[in-house]
What does this fold into?
Amino acid sequence: MSPTPAEPLLELEAVSRVYGEEVLVFALRDVSLQILPGDFMSIVGPSGSGKSTMLGLLGCLDLPTDGTVRIGGEDVSSLDDATRSRLRGDSIGFVFQQFHLIPHLSALGNVETALLYRHIRPAERRARAYAALDELGLGARAHHRPVQMSGGEQQRVALARAIVTEPLMILADEPTGALDSENSAHVLEIFDGLESPERAVVMVTHDPAVADTARRKVSMRDGRIVADERPQVAVS
Amino acid sequence: MSAFRDLLGVAWTGLTARKVRTLLIMLGPIVGVAAMVGAVGLTESAKGDLKAKLAVLGTNLIIAQAGGTFGSQNPTFPDDAVHRAEAVSTVTSAAATAELASVVALPSQGGSDYYQAFPVPVRAADLTLPSVLEVPVINGRWLTESDIKLHTRSIVLGAGLAKQYAFLPGETRTIKLNDTDYGVVGVLGSVALDPDLDNAVFITQWAAEHDFATDGKPNKLYVRSVTGRTQETADAIPTAINLGGPDQVSTKVPSDVLQASAQADKTLQQTALFAGLLALSVGGLGIANVMSISVIQRSSEIGIRRAVGHSRSKIASQFLLESLFVGILGGLAGAALGVGIVYLVSSVAHWVVVVAYSRIPIWMTLALIVSVGAGLYPSIKAARLEPLETLRLG
Ligand SMILES: Nc1ncnc2c1ncn2[C@@H]1O[C@H](COP(=O)(O)OP(=O)(O)OP(=O)(O)O)[C@@H](O)[C@H]1O
Ligand SMILES: [Mg+2]
It folds into this structure.
């Protein structure tokens, strides 16, 4: 541990996100949040409270209508699309509730997608993708398409895709939301294994039990952060 | 460069993953290019035999005929007409013949009444005549220098005449010109550009002057010009020959008639070309339409790609490249199909195949432009999608 407080990987500063033109929907209102290396964070809150919206902003898939989003100290809104896309690809791995795999690609092809346009030779790209799948116990399924796999397997492919670039942040939006308890447990186990001093893991969840395993728990309501706690005891 | 290779791979996989759809949108460029290749190929091939004939005969032969002053009998050129014609810089060679109007040829015993009624034209010809006409001597030989030196009475038959007399190769045959016997030494091949020569017999200038007391003045000139300058050469020849004198010289380019009939039916060709163009544009609309739908269907793929770091321009390039592949492959397949059709129809119709290979790249480029143009709007649409919105829904 360094003696000085670590630089935040990600920072929201008085961020608002308003949808619509005539009827305005305030999905996020004046939210500030810092995500530090080593964070293992859960985000909870009722439906419509702005969790997914915040995750989209954290992953710079979206831009704020007000306020500043910084990744590694850089104001995301000031970057052009190519730079922002590269930044996103380099530093963030996404996992979604509905897996979001590309249906016409094999498991391997889906994981490789995250390594495209990065000046990596195809053989190396393939090897790295395969290694990521293998790490999650899917080596044998590398050439299967999403439809040929169970939900749990598909979500693990998505996880492999998120970690293959070795990002500093993993953002997951209800990653177990579409899984049965057994598969959920398996996926959560993988998330636990992702914890590291350099990396931050952020997970939106509806499951209080899951939320309580996190070291840091952010609660939202009506587009605002209403609590940002660090429970002392993690249930193991 | 490696990013471009990645892009190629992505676009290619996108196309091959939906083979039927890909094939369907390729139909536009395929049908368009095939129609254009076929249209031109078939209309040209229908005249292919004439074209092939023209290619052999050449289009640069000029025939100059002495017209004389108005009303004069048996008009002739000056003695040195060949020389004068050759002075024209675009003339490559020239040979003269003189018609011996008063000489009656009797190819066989008896029948002299018949041959007086239907005389066989007798011509005194230059030694270079076959080479200027570019017609081979199909039997025996042509008149030579030694015929003149040794004063032999040699005669060469036109191809039509040889056939009519049933002349056999190697046969000794004598033909009476007025009362002098001439020995047949050869048969000149058929002269497609001046069929009159097929029914004539040819003797040397010496024989004409010696036996029939002609003045040796030619009345018909065969001239070859530099390729591509035939008409201006033909226009220059009358002046060159009579040097401003009162004699009339008429020239004609006999291949012109053949050339006109060898012209493909342009109206038909243009109609078919237009149909091909129409197929191509309709195909373009099809590509634009199907790709637009495809962009909506693939919106979650687009969102995923954005999420893993592909930029808007990469997304646009991916879809643009897919339409580029459609254009290239469709164009190639269309060209192959078109050429195949031309070969097939020509073989059934016994035509000489003519394929406008030099124009195929133009049509393929056209197909490519249409395809890429059609893919432009869907590609931009794909790039503009908001990733979060496409990922929110299942
Ligand atoms: N594109 C949009 N246009 C208009 N309103 C939107 C849009 N996206 C989200 N919203 C609104 O913003 C608010 C926050 O949505 P968000 O998806 O962030 O909620 P959430 O906390 O993730 O909910 P859930 O738990 O149901 O996933 C909601 O009221 C939603 O209706
Ligand atoms: Mg949500």
Summary: Chain A is about 30% helix and 25% strand. Residues A 51-52, 173 surround magnesium ion (ligand 2) (CB under 6 Å). Helices of chain A lie at 51-58, 81-91, 107-113, 122-135, 151-163, 181-194, 208-213.
